[in-house]
Amino acid sequence: MLLRTILRRIGYALLTMVLASLLVFTALQALPGDLATQLLGRDATPSAVAQLRATLHLDRPAWRRYLDWLGGALHGDFGRSLVSHQSVLDEAGRYLRNTVLLAAIVIVVGITLSVALGVVAGVLRDRWPDLTISGLSLIGMSVPEFTVSTLLVLVFAVRLGWFPAVVTDGPDATVGELMHVIWLPAAALIVVMAAYIIRMMRTSVIDVLGSEYVTAARIRGLSGTRVLFRHALPNALLPTLNVIAINIAWLVGGVVVVESIFNYPGIGTLMLRAVHDRDLPVLQFIAVLGAATFVACNLLADLAATWLNPRLRTPGRAA
Amino acid sequence: MTEAQYGVRQGARTGDPRAPRWSEGVVSRRSALLGGVAAVTAPWLLAACGDSGGSPQAAAATGTAQKGGTMHIARPPASNAETLDPASSLSAYEYLGALYSRLVKQAADGTATPDLATHWESTPDSLKWTFTLRDGVKFHNGKAFTSADAAYTLAHILDPATKSPQAGVLSPFLDKSGIATPDARTLVVTLKSPNAEFVSLLMNYNCYVIPADSASTIGTTGIGTGPFQLVSFKAAGKGSVKANADYFGGKPNLDTIEFTAIADVQARVNALLAGQVDLVAQTNLDYATSKTVAASTIATTATVKNAEWYVLPMLCKLAPFTDVNVRQAFKLAYQPQEVLDLAVHGRGTVANNNPVIPTDAYYLDYKVTPDPEKAKSLLQAAGLLAKGQDLYTSSYDSVLTPMALAYQSSAKKAGVTINVKTAAADSYYTDVWIKKPMCASYWYTGRPIDQLLNQIFRGGSSYNETLWSDATFASALDAARKEPDQAKRKQHYQDAQKILVDSSGTIVPFFADRTVGLSKKVVNYTEYGFEFDYVNIGFRQ
Which of A209, A233, B94, B244 has its CA 20 to 30 A from that of B54? Predict the structure, then answer.
């Protein structure tokens, strides 16, 4: 049953990815200009454009170009970048590694921190720690990531000089080099992401702590910490999981803005360049990657929910 | 797809729109995507929190620089496929002046002065040019520089496979067969048609000299005869150059320069404010940002006078600008000083519709005084008085929209109704420029006068943004090219300027200064046109 669910979900996931790639392809067709005009710029005489289009196969019908791409992609061949002529997988891979590093730090630090803060706020409801945490997370929610980034740069790089303001290394920087510079971009993403998780966690801890089975457990004489960690928390985490999943998926988009501000050599930076150059193969790959991340996050959240919730875990007894 | 096809693609990448120094792109289009987000928010945030009161400094600090040191320079990447081949439209511009030398370079008055060529002369008909080359110069790989390298460089630029933007400028009167090397110190160039200003066209940054037979490797080796030699280079990434002790112009002050490519303008400025870089190259700071930088404790600003000229081209092939009286009315209608003050806070020089820079040796000080009343009557005669005219602009460059709005407001008194329309920055130079009857644009001022007038204003040129075609203007330019006597040649170029101001489709309200951000430690920063002094720049003692 569980296996069948997973298989069905993976089927949906593949469909989502194909639709995402189709959407990006269509959107790019709708944009004025194509690679030929972008490359030629002020030198774009009609004959030069026509010649370059022919060289790039841009003169073929759009549906044909999409099907060509799709056929290759199904075989794991995502083509070559139209600008650098490198294999898309190689090129995107170099940038992706850096984004994965950034995302890993954001997820590990961000989720741990925000779940913990959410629990503190929920348990100490309406006391000063709750008011502080809730207030700050409301601000974090309301301020967009580019403002958070700019403020972080202003305070920690320009004023205090604790961290570098931008990443000066290219995509081939070593992990060691990136570890010096990753903290401000990570902090910017954590601030915005944590806010939602904290709010959700706080609400659900308050709900669970007010429920009858927690009261019952208390009446039976179980210690406060045991009630909290054994009985209340697993249930409180359930609704938060989806929020966490959506926030991780949001990282895929938020990372574009933040990477640009910090000159971080990640997949978001690559995407901006690809949009600018109308570098379709690179962009298609990033779109598929984004869709895959989104789908995978939600699938994992559902699986985790099953594992945390006995009613979903045991086959046959689920409603 | 085959490798061969990719080879063709690579070669086909001519005149990338972002090749900034050529024509455009202080703000690369890439950053314009996000620039809207970051650039709008960031400057006021920073300005609001910074110490108030700092004002932009007029000129960079000068003084004795210490020997040695490493300078960090932030630069906008030209593309993910950047190259060190100077002839390419995708060259990494900031490296070129450090790594290479040209036959001639540009003096402050726009004329050619010796670089690798110490002397040159032509036959009286301006057809045959003989260059005497500098002796004892070595490339960074130890090989001696000879006339063969100079000849190869010219042939490389002219080679259609190189797709060099400068090929279009030189090829009308020069082909490969006209290049000869009678001995190792002499280069003889025979033109197909006379050009007395030929030498000035070799000052271009595409004309840096590369070693013979290096076309396939120069893009990554960067072997030149310049003040610095290449240590490392990554396209759109990091790179560094170290001092060339044997440089014929003397050893530079700095030991090393490290270049970092940063696409986003605000990120480049942040790197300066945080002390990560010492100079932000090829970036014009907008007014708010320049205030922030000037207020910083570690950074300051310097001004490159008249670095760009801003223009409102009117398409002479489209109504209503087919009528010279209408073009004249639009030129008479506005006050250039008002537009200069409004658009760039007065940081520049009034141009009076003449794109030739006032410091140029051939400059003609001529203007038609603005006359709103006359403009009004001209428009009335043409039946256009109450009609609105669309003026297109975009966020491609930060000055375009302020200039359009300033022109709109200034021309209102003459009964000119301008509707400012904002187009997408991304496709501005493909869908609006030379397509819509009137738009806002700009160019760098580094072109020598012969190239400027022939390339941008002469009928038939692909860069002629107004599609203006005037026989007397063209014959003045031809007469200038044929004229060996400099005083008479100057007269011809000045005649051409007068015709241009009177009847062309070009409104040039002003030259704008470029405000550059640099560390307070930096001394002897000098930049004008396409020249950057890499030898004398250094750190304060």
Answer: B94
